[in-house]
Amino acid sequence: MIRNNRALAIGVCLLLALTIAGSFLVPGFASVQNARSVLLLAAFLGLASLGQTMVALLGGLDLSIPYVIGAANILLPAMINAGLPAPIAITMILLLGLMVGAINGALSFRLQGQALIMSLGVGFTIVGATQIYTALGSATGGNVFAPIPAWLTNFAAFNGRTVGFPIPPVVVIWILVIIVTNFVVKRTWFGRSLYALGGSRNAAARLMINEFRLWVAVHAISGIMSAMTGVLLLGFSGGGYVAVGDPYLFTTVAAVVIGGTSLLGGAGGYGATVIGALVLTVLTSLLVGVGLSIPAQQAIVGLLLIPMVALYARMPHIRSQV
Asked: What's the confidence (pLDDT) of residue 139?
């Protein structure tokens, strides 16, 4: 508890410091328009990071996330072009994401010594197979264009509106996901099982927690959230691009680490990752505002991660406290 509160306090202080610095250094940084832009971009990262957080709570990482995002992003317009109504195509993609995540979980559980590489292999397989499918009869499988429904564009657009209010619906979706996830993680047997298993496998076994089912379940959640992010990013960009998920390979892990969730499992939570996603998005907005190049932005984010990881590494893991 002390560890979680300390990590959360550090994240909140960092967020406030970046916001204040941006207000002084970048004209218009403290405007409503910029706040809406930050929340919109943070929502995409936050939704993609949900699964990464749950897998991290078990002591693992899911490297398939960016590839599932890219696959969903090009598969949806391909299915629309094939004549499927958008709601049916989206439902199918979400179910496929769920299934891919479950397969990823089952395979990585059986080969936990190589779980990272297994999740990477599953990601490569899915995005490659999707590109082959979308390239049939086309010369450009990595980019797929189709008429995007206006409601999906409104969902993820900067100027999107929710029941008349100037708030992009994806931000509202993210807020609902935060509320539901925090309730499930903190108040249900499923959530307590995550912390028990991440903290001590022996203790979890004595509590009759099925490690395989839990491992598969969190990877399935990661899969469906990645697919959802890919679908929403299509509404944001207006065209399918297979590499749209690439930035999320690093940023989902960074959001988890900056939020203070232990990559060894058993400590942290999605609320902390939300702070991490906001810190990363505000930092990026600030660095873009002062005119830094992408390599310079990456260097500064890396410099931010090093002390954060060093700080959290000094905190004892829950296994050493029981």
From this structure: 60
Could you tell me which of 126, 55, 81, 50 has the C-alpha nearest to residue 234?
81
Sequential DSSP letters for 249-308: HHHHHHHHHHHT--TTSSS--HHHHHHHHHHHHHHHHHHHHTT--HHHHHHHHHHHHHHH
pLDDT at residue 41 above 80?
A: yes
The answer for residues whose C-beta is within 8 angstroms of residue 52's C-beta and 6 or more apart is 61, 62, 65, 222, 252, 253, 255, 256, 273
Consecutive H or E run containing 58: none
Angle in degrees, CA 227, 233, 239, rounded to 5 = 110
Beta strands in 2-138 (DSSP E): none
Helix (H) or strand (E) holding 107: helix 86-110
pLDDT score of 322 more than 50: no
C-alpha Rg value of the chain to the nearest Å: 20
Place 306 in a pLDDT band, splitting at 50, 70 and 90. confident
For residue 54 the two structure tokens come to 């749950």
Residue 144: φ, ψ to 5°: -130, 130
**Cβ pair 49, 277 in contact under 8 A:** yes
Cβ atoms of 190 and 272 within 8 Å: the answer is no
Tokens in use for 239? 């065209």
Tens-place pLDDT, residues 83-107: 999 999 999 999 999 999 999 999 9
pTM over 0.70: yes
* Token pair of 95 as six digits: 């179910």
Task: Determine the length of the chain.
Answer: 322
